[in-house]
Amino acid sequence: MACAKAQPFPPVDRISATRWSDLEPLILTAPIDCWVYGHTHGCLDAFLGQTRVVSNQRGYPRAGYGVEAYRADWVVEV
Predict the structure, then answer these.
(1) 43 with 68: CB under 8 angstroms?
(2) Is it the case that residue 27 has pLDDT exceeding 90?
(3) N or C: which end of the chain has fewer CB within 10 A?
């Protein structure tokens, strides 16, 4: 999984590096209109430079984690 720095993440260590990577330099310098990512269990709709960074995840419904921000009817037009 690759995530932008638009969301706070813990410091990179040997374990966290297997789940996410800092792609902010790529996103800020490449001509990317929209970066869509998943598997962080959190939702985001923000801009990193000129790139729209989006994620719409249901999270863990039984645990109540991330559910409040999830939008089942959300459509992103690119």
Answers:
(1) no
(2) yes
(3) C
